[in-house]
Amino acid sequence: MPGPLTQLIQQRRLLLATSREALLARFRGSLLGAAWLLLYPVLFLAMYATVFINVLGVRIPSLGTWGYVQVIFAGLVPFLAFAEGFGVGTLSVVANRGLLKNTLFPIELVVTRDVLVGHATMGLGMLMVWLSVAVEGRFYWTHLLVPLVYMLQIGMTLGIVWITSSLTVFFRDLQHATPILVLFLMLVSPIAYTDAMVPDELRPLLSFNPLAWLMAVYRGCLLEGTVPLYDSLKLLIFTSLILHLGHLLISRLKPMFNDHL
What we know:
There is one protein chain. With about 260 residues, the chain is an all-alpha fold. It has helices at about 5-10, 10-25, 35-55, 65-90, 90-95, 105-120, 120-135, 145-170, 175-190, 205, 210-225, 230-255. The chain is globular. The chain starts with a helix and ends with a helix.
C-alpha cells in the first residue's frame, strides 16, 4: 500500500484539477465570486477585533492596537482554514458515496480535495498579514518558512479528516457533533490571545492543542522573526503521525464503506 505522500504525488494533476474546479464551482453564480476568498477572513477579523478590542477591552501591554490586530489575524486565518477543511472534509465520504467504486479518483482523494479547497482562503489571508508587517519595514528570514508551515497545516488537517470522515460512515452522529467541536476548538485555541495571557491552570489546554502549536509557529515566523522550536517540533511529529495514521485508517476501512452507505 503506497504511503500518503506517494499517493498524493502520483495523483497530483488529477487532484489539483478537481480542486480547482471545486473551488470555482463554490463561487459560481455568486455576485462577488472569488472576492469572497478575501472577504471571508477580513469579515471575521473585523468581528473578532471589534469584540475583543472595543467590547472586552483586551490588550497586550507590549503591543499597540494594530499589533494586536496582527496577532489576531495570524491566529484567525489558520483556524478558519482548518475549520473549513475539517467541517467539509469530515462529511466527504458520506456526501460522495457515488465515487466509492471509482478507481480513477479514490475516495481518499475526494477528502483531500475538500481539505485543499477549505485552505484556499488561507493563502490570501497570510499574504495580508505579511503585507501588514512588510509595510512597517519588518522583513524577517523566517517569512520564507511560512509556506512550509502552510504545508504542515494541510498535512495535519488531512490526517485528522481522513480519520473523522472514515468514522462518520459508521457513526453518523459525528456529522452533528462536528460544528460543536469546531466551536470548542475556537474557544480553546489562542486566536485572540497569546500563551502568556493564559492562567497557569489552563495551560494544558494549549500544551496538548495542535492548533495552539500551529498558531505559535505562524506568529513567530510572521510577526517576531523567530522559530518556536519546541512548538515546531511538536507540530512536525504530530503531523507526520496523524497523516500516516489517517491514511492507514481510510485505506483499511474503505472496502467496508459501501455496506454502510
